[in-house]
């Protein structure tokens, strides 16, 4: 196996420890920035939905602020954002390079995107359900958790998947400015040194990650939508009939 | 008892203000089924949504079971000062007022059981207690076998039953029904209406029922208010409103639920009927619950030597009794006709010469 890899991907084999380090770094960036962005984006998305006009905690000022911040950061291309945020990153984490330095721009790049997706997902929850919850005495907290988040789970799974895939893309871009990870590895050891096999392996790896995310996301979304529950019940009863 | 006095509600928008409720005063007694009828946009939903404060009125008062939920007064500066029940107290009040909707508004990702349990959870009620209450409620609406089903597996009528069970979970004294049967087929509509009637009898539940269909008002309500452009234009016992409608819109609604609506059409097309001249009259007789059994027609022809032929007849079965309408032609000598009409007026039959 080792011999075979050496023969078709000599450079990957040569730099294999560097390769695994870069995979680890990407994973680290993805996990840390992902968790933070998920929490913050979810929070912002909820805030936008409940404070908008006619929302359960209508508040024009809060809505406006979150809305503007979200729009502002969403309109900056990620590569520019990376540079723009360097001073802030230095102040917050002490350095603007490496995995640590990448977290801040990754969060800033992902949160606005995710916020809008969450907002749309929650917005899709039928107004009537919220009204029914209100008529039963639920307050804002009850409505957020028991209606909005509860009913939007499949949709949230879908948008989380999309966001996760775009975050992977961002981590590789952050690599271009020295964040480490698969992106850096592909540039520094692949492209710069003309090692095509390294670039190919990096691409395959990224495609694989994307497919896996997509698969998990679709699975969760399907399992949590009860339309599919019906299908599974129906097919079960069909099986029974056949027996 | 629900008391609404001088209620006003305006929606402001860029395209102009909409007066959805204008000076509405109503009182709804305990244990009655109170209907509110009006065309789309008349302000019916706005009015009932004010009862549980889903919508906050501009001015007026709302009192439910002795508790004032909304009150307003004009301050020294001429501005309206409103006091609204808020927070925990509002939640408490809402638990005493159930509500059902046109589109059921169930949680799609919850089972029937969890939907019905929704209002019982997080209120400090024990799990076993919730479970037994839900079972009881599903029994009440006849859906015990569906407790693990999801709403998408139910028919419209079944969904509305789940919604009714859910609305009754906290044993409210009042149920607000906003077009609850408008999305249902006739069979399901009938079964939901009879369920509501049953609940009204069994639990003494006060029901406020909104609809745009007179036939529903007719079959189930004790009293009715007719709304048009945010105003209550007529209200009273359903039977009275139905037998003697005053406002034009009420007449329209009454006709819509009765075969007599065809009368105008008939008159327009039938030369013979329209030209009621000498020796012939077109009359409309109204038999109320006291006279509906009387043999008036045969009596007429026997006593006054006139011929009575029936053009159109209709019997409405209302909650409070039967209401008959008869359009007929009287033929005979002038003085006989006059005498016959005089006699009719003395009976407890409504007479109208058309
Ligand atoms: N949230 C709202 N914002 C603005 N206008 C509204 C709102 N809700 C209702 N209206 C208006 O108020 C009027 C009464 O509406 P509604 O109470 O829903 O009537 P109904 O239930 O009798 O059909 C309509 O003209 C409607 O357009
Ligand atoms: Mg309505």
Brief descriptors of the model:
heterodimer; A: 243 residues; mainly alpha; MetI-like fold; 12 helices; 85% helix; B: 354 residues; alpha/beta; Rossmann fold; Alpha-Beta Plaits; 2 domains; 6-stranded mixed sheet; 13 helices; 15 strands; 31% strand; globular; binds adenosine-5'-diphosphate; binds magnesium ion
Please tell me about this protein's structure.
The complex is a heterodimer of chains A (243) and B (354). Chain A has a single domain (9-242), classed as MetI-like (MetI-like fold, Orthogonal Bundle), CATH 1.10.3720.10. Chain A is built from 12 helices and no strands. Chain A is mainly α and 243 residues long. Chain A has helices at residues 2-8, 10-14, 16-51, 60-74, 78-84, 86-93, 98-123, 127-135, 140-176, 181-191, 196-224, 226-242. In chain A, helix 3 packs antiparallel against helix 9, helix 8 (127-135) packs antiparallel against helix 9 and helix 9 (140-176) packs parallel to helix 10. By secondary structure, chain B is of the alpha/beta class. Chain B folds into 2 domains: 2-96 and 172-256, 3-Layer(aba) Sandwich (Rossmann fold), CATH 3.40.50; 259-353, ACT domain (Alpha-Beta Plaits). Chain B has a 6-stranded mixed β-sheet, with helices on both faces. A 5-stranded antiparallel β-sheet of chain B has the order 2-1-4-5-6, covered by helices on one side. In chain B, strands 13-14-12-15 form a 4-stranded antiparallel β-sheet. In chain B, a hairpin with a 5-residue loop joins strand 5 (67-74) and strand 6. In chain B, helix 5 runs parallel beside helix 6 and helix 12 runs antiparallel to helix 13. The interface between A and B is medium-sized, with 26 and 32 residues. The site of adenosine-5'-diphosphate has 12 residues of chain B, from strand 2 and helix 1.
């Amino acid at each position: 196996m080792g011999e075979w890899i050496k023969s078709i991907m000599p450079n990957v084999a040569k730099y294999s420890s560097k390769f695994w380090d870069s995979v680890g770094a990407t994973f680290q960036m993805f996990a840390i920035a992902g968790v933070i962005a998920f929490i913050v984006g979810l929070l912002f998305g909820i805030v936008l939905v409940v404070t908008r006009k006619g929302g359960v905690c209508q508040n024009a000022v809060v809505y406006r602020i979150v809305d503007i911040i979200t729009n502002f950061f969403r309109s900056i291309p990620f590569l520019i954002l990376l540079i723009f945020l360097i001073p802030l990153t230095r102040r917050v984490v002490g350095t603007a390079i490496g995995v640590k330095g990448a977290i801040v721009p990754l969060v800033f790049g992902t949160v606005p995107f995710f916020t809008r997706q969450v907002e749309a997902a929650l917005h899709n929850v039928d107004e009537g359900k919220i009204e029914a919850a209100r008529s039963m005495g639920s307050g804002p907290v009850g409505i957020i958790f028991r209606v909005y988040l509860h009913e939007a789970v499949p949709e949230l799974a879908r948008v989380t998947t999309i966001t996760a895939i775009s975050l992977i893309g961002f981590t590789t871009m952050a690599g271009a400015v020295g964040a480490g990870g698969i992106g850096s590895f592909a540039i520094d050891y692949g492209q710069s040194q003309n090692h095509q096999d390294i670039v190919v392996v990096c691409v395959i790896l990224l495609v694989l990650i994307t497919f896996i995310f997509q698969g998990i996301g679709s699975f969760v979304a399907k399992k949590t939508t009860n339309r599919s529950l019906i299908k599974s019940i129906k097919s079960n009863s069909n099986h029974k009939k056949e027996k | 008892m629900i008391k609404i006095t001088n209620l006003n509600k305006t929606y402001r928008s860029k395209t102009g203000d909409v007066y959805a409720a204008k000076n509405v005063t109503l009182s709804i007694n305990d244990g009655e089924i109170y209907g509110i009828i009006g065309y789309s946009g008349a302000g019916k939903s706005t009015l009932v949504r004010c009862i549980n404060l889903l919508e906050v009125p501009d001015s007026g008062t709302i009192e439910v079971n002795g508790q004032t939920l909304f009150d307003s007064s004009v301050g020294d500066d001429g501005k309206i000062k409103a006091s609204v029940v808020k927070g925990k107290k509002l939640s408490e009040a809402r638990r005493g007022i159930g509500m059902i909707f046109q589109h059921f508004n169930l949680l799609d990702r919850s089972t029937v059981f969890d939907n019905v349990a929704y209002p019982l959870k997080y209120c400090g009620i024990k799990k076993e207690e919730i479970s037994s209450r839900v079972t009881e409620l599903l029994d009440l609406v006849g859906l015990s076998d569906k407790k693990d089903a999801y709403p998408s597996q139910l028919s419209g009528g079944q969904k509305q039953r789940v919604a009714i069970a859910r609305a009754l979970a906290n044993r409210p004294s009042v149920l607000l029904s906003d077009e609850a049967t408008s999305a249902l087929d006739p069979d399901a509509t009938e079964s939901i209406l009879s369920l509501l009637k049953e609940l009204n009898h069994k639990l003494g539940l006060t029901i406020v029922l909104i609809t745009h269909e007179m036939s529903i008002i007719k079959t189930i309500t004790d009293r009715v208010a007719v709304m048009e452009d945010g105003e209550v234009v007529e209200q009273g016992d359903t039977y009275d409103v139905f037998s003697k409608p005053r406002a034009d819109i009420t007449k329209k609604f009454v006709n819509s639920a009765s075969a007599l609506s065809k009368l105008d059409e008939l008159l327009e097309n039938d030369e013979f009927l329209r030209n009621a001249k000498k020796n012939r009259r077109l009359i409309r007789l109204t038999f109320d619950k006291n006279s509906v059994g009387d043999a008036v027609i045969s009596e007429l022809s026997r006593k006054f030597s006139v011929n009575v032929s029936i053009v159109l007849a209709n019997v409405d079965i209302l909650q409070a009794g039967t209401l008959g309408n008869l359009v007929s032609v009287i033929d005979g000598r002038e003085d006989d006709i006059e005498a016959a009409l005089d006699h009719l007026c003395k009976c407890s039959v409504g007479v109208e010469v058309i």
